[in-house]
Write a structure and sequence with these properties.
The chain is an alpha+beta fold. The chain folds into 2 domains: 166 residues, Beta-Lactamase (2-Layer Sandwich), CATH 3.30.450; 48 residues, Arc Repressor Mutant, subunit A. It contains 10 helices and 5 strands. Strands 2-1-5-4-3 form a 5-stranded antiparallel sheet, with helices on both faces. Helix 2 packs antiparallel against helix 6, helix 3 packs antiparallel against helix 5 and helix 8 packs across helix 10. It is globular and about 55 Å long. The chain starts with a helix and ends in a 22-residue tail after the last helix.
Length: 252
């Protein structure tokens, strides 16, 4: 598949939030996976700020060991926080020349092997709900065209999230976002269990869980929680057969 085809598919996926069984965590996971595949970046993370002003990271659900080391600090300083606060793109920055305000983030990121860091806001007009952090471990920054495309992906994702919030019960969407960090922990546990019991890699375990969730129209978190609790993947959701009218009942 060409790069142009991947980009087109990504926009289609990011527009597919107007469904009854919309899974926010899976949606954000797919955004990070697509960015890693299309752009020459080592790691990508989504940082969200609602229902409150504090940032947290619901995606990726399967962060690399290097990304895991820097995510906690990325919530408190660095390009992702700056992109969220200013609602503007933080251009590719050489971590060897990073601002003093990124001191702790920079030290840990460089120790983890990253060389460049940039971020784009998740925004729609006057509303900013988070940011997309992009990290490279190469000797050159992210190309400007790629950064503009990342902003376009972030804009499309924001529209999808805000549409989901509008069309579904607001408290349901907020609850999913609020518990996303805990969901990531559950997914990590389930992924490890599945990999150990099926003699497969962690990446393949996650792919199998995600495929199972999509095939049976289940939330990825629900699949992970069932796997942790029972040791098995859940079956498809039960459906209640339509009630047959009582004998002699009117069809009015």
């Amino acid at each position: 598949m060409s790069r142009e085809q991947k980009i087109a598919e990504t926009f289609v996926e990011l527009a597919d939030s107007l469904v009854a069984d919309f899974d926010i965590i899976d949606f954000l996971q797919q955004l990070t996976a697509r960015c890693c595949d299309i752009f020459a970046v080592s790691d990508v993370a989504v940082l969200l700020a609602y229902p409150g002003p504090k940032l947290y990271s619901p995606a990726p659900c399967d962060p690399s060991p290097a990304l895991t080391k820097v995510l906690d600090l990325a919530l408190h300083e660095g390009p992702a926080l700056d992109a969220y606060r200013t609602a503007s793109t933080i251009t590719p920055g050489n971590l060897a020349l990073a601002p003093a305000t990124w001191r702790d983030f920079t030290a840990l990121a460089r120790e983890a092997g990253y060389t460049y860091a940039s971020a784009v806001p998740l925004r729609l007009r006057e509303e900013t709900i988070g940011s997309l952090l992009l990290l490279r471990a190469t000797d050159s920054p992210l190309p400007a065209d790629d950064l503009r495309m990342a902003q376009a992906f972030a804009d499309a994702a924001t529209i999808g999230l805000l549409h989901a919030r509008t069309l579904q019960r607001t408290e349901t969407v907020h609850e999913q976002l609020h518990t996303a960090l805990h969901s990531r922990i559950t997914i990590e546990q389930a992924k490890g269990f599945f990999a150990a019991h099926h003699n497969t890699s962690l990446d393949d375990a996650f792919t199998s869980m995600r495929r199972h969730a999509r095939h049976h129209r289940l939330l990825l978190t629900a699949v992970a929680r069932h796997l942790v609790d029972t040791g098995a993947l859940p079956g498809p959701p039960s459906t209640t057969p339509p009630r047959r009218p009582a004998q002699g009942a009117s069809n009015e």
